[in-house]
Amino acid sequence: MTNNTKKTLLIVFEVFMIIVAFIFMIPVLLTLINSLKTDAQIYQNPASFPTSIQIINFVNAWKETKFPLVFFNTFLITSLSTVGIILVSSMASYAMVRTKSKLSWAFFLLFTFSMVVPFQTIMIPLVVTAKALNLKNIFGIIPIYFGLGCPMAIFMYHGFIKGIPLELEESAAIDGASIFRTFFTIVLPLLTPITATIAILDVLWIWNDFLLPLIILPKQTTIQLAQYGFFGQFKTEFGKAMASLVLSASPIVIFYLAMQKYIIKGIMAGAIKG
To answer: At what angle do helices 67-98 and 56-64 cross, to 10 degrees?
Structure first.
């Protein structure tokens, strides 16, 4: 294959990927466009541009969802859950990697197996357990996210930690460092790429999660539950709904754009080291 042929194929492939990326962006563009239109305009032609800019949709969505309150609740749940998943998973993975025993390997297989269990199969037992333990509140849902998020994080950490030279920890032990000091001052900083990846993935998941808050929390506690109020049995307020989606997505999109470089870097590093 000549160089010209390779360049032509590369250009064709790049054009094809740009078209695919644009297709995936269509729902986002439609959401943004329809957030600036009246319900009548949306029903008439959802794909058309607004004839007049309806900023009032954002004002009404802000007020009716009590956006500052639900934003704070969602931020609290997301941040605490993500930090907890990172701490628990990194420490558990470190213990399983450095403890050479069949029990450690069995625990790792158990966590890995739990990744393939569909959430729908544990919904009813989860609700019953949460009610019995008085976890049906903002702070109660956080440990539930720990249990749901740790298996994937442990799987990713496990492969990454195996690539860290054991000599670094042995040197720290000779200097008198405890196992906790060794972990937090030597091992955890080396896990920064995979930690950033796990943080991004978990923030995107928890922030946008609807099903778990729906079955655990009271109505209109998080942003997603508040948005659900715009979709009724007899009437759907699409303009307000689209505006609320833009409001809720803006912070997480900014966070993702700021941290996206770590996603591929961390996943590839974990895969190679595993």
So the answer is: 70
pLDDT, tens digit, for every residue of 154-189?
A: 999 988 888 888 888 888 888 888 888 888 888 888
Cα–Cα distance measured from residue 95 to residue 104, given in angstroms and rounded to the nearest whole number: 8
- Does 24 fall in a domain? no
91 in any annotated domain: yes
Q: What is the DSSP string of 130-195?
A: HHHTT--SHHHHHHHHHHHHHHHHHHHHHHHHTTS-HHHHHHHHHTT--HHHHIIIIIHHHTHHHH
Domain span at residue 212?
Answer: 65-273
Rounded to whole angstroms, what are the CA distances from 95 to 101, 105, 161? 11, 11, 10
What are residue 209's phi and psi, to 5 degrees? -70, 135
Reported confidence tier of residue 196, pLDDT bands at 50, 70, 90: confident
Q: Kindly calculate the radius of gyration of the chain based on its CA atoms and give it in whole angstroms.
A: 23
